[in-house]
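Hi L., both proteins are below.
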Amino acid sequence: MSAGLPHLADPPAVWVRYDREVRAEGGAVAPGGLGGALCAASRADRRAALRQAAALPRDELARVLPLVAVRCADWVKPVRARARRLLRDALRGPLPAGALAATAAAVLAVEKRREGEAAHALLAEAFSDARVREVLLDAPDPVTRRFAHRAALDGGLLPAERAAWTAAADPDRLVRGMCLAAVADVPDPDPAHLSVLLTSKWPETRAAAVAALTDAEPYLADRSGTVRAAAREAVRASGGHPADLCRAQCADAARRPYAPVGLAECAERTDEDLPLLRELTTHPVARVRASAVAGLRTLDPKGWQRVLPLLDDPSAAVVHEVTRSLSEHAYSLPGDELLARIAPERPYPQRAAALRLLSLGYSSHRMLGLMRMLEDPHPRLRARAALAATRRAYIAWPTPPEVAVEVLELLDRHHDVLRAWDRSHLREVLLRSLDPAKSAGAGVPLTDR
């Protein structure tokens, strides 16, 4: 059933759906009166509604103008011809900004229909008006902003300063890309425009600006890997050595917390870089420690034994980076070390990291850890443990008796977590471990990995 007439602030898909739902109801006029009539199943009713809309004052017409835009792509020629005349006249006069933006969005929503090109041409014609252009450039609908910026850039109607701010701040990636190409991808970009781009939160925007800088050294320690890569290329292009600069930044890591990972990403590494990063894992600033762990993942990918104790770091960012490093060696991690970190008194980040690592193997200690986590005080960790136990409901044989007894107890308390077949399989393997005589000559389901 169709609801009332959509609001002008609604996305264009809401207007298109309203049109479809009203017509599916057989043409009954929905709440909104004229709006429902514009979507009626009868062509005569739609033409009559368009005549009625043409006689409305402009502020009342604005309320249903997005539906008029939809009717411009109507399958009945007289209906769409009348709708196009009405839309042309409306776009030539003053309209509220909200109605203009909603109408443009509706036009673009039906542009791909067989008869949708004419309304698009009317919108492109109206775009030459400065007021229309201003409204569409700031429209909430991203498709509308893409149309407006593409048309403004093609026609040379978008000032470079505005293009720079749009490239730095617009939430739509395609809009940012169009404006970024107009500002940064030119022979001699304006330094003022590059300064605007460098304030962006989007890595690709900052990277494009850094690539055009003559002094990219400060951005070798940017928080984004994309920006750091652009800075390294810019430094090399100017004859510098990124690794030397990163080492100097590591000496002041409190101000440049991402310098350690930037050093690890440089190709010109030396034997002194590995001890330097290991030393920085004890830095008082958490971001520096996390960056050093990320750098060690590149420089020393097999040195997980040195990284494992950092799971006890009080910073969640450091624990996250340690978990990423250890995930590649999950099968080699000692189960006792992970079991010790799921105790209820441990901080949440440590328990979450241990749970993630426990879920990456099939050993008896890992299954014990997953079953213990079903009684964790945090509901999110309990849910993750239940999912991991369901996916990895296997246990190695033989299982140590003390582990088998505890898993059986936990299995009885949480019998609803696993499927019946999984419970039966686990119970059989655990009972064999407790009574080896029963397993004489029996096949071994899995080895302890």
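That was the first. Here is the second:
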Amino acid sequence: MYVSDYWKQFGVIEFKWHYLNAFVYGSIGLLSLITNSMVLFYILRIKKKTNRTNGIIFLINLAIADIFKVMINLPMTAISSFYGKWIFEQKGIFEISI
């Protein structure tokens, strides 16, 4: 993999920063799962008696898409942060992003 000379002037990042990065990603992922699940619960259960307008359907789609993104992308990033490098190779990037 080609790395520009500009980035080679910086030293190697200490592992404590990788662990902190993984913790932040995990916290954001957990918070996102909880809040999006609450949005879906509220819309699908409590708002059942009202009409489903385009805005409500859009919010449902947004919450579902965000939940799937969190379930796929954030664990991969957090796990790679623990190892200090991307461990899923180039193949994993393209298969999941398509």
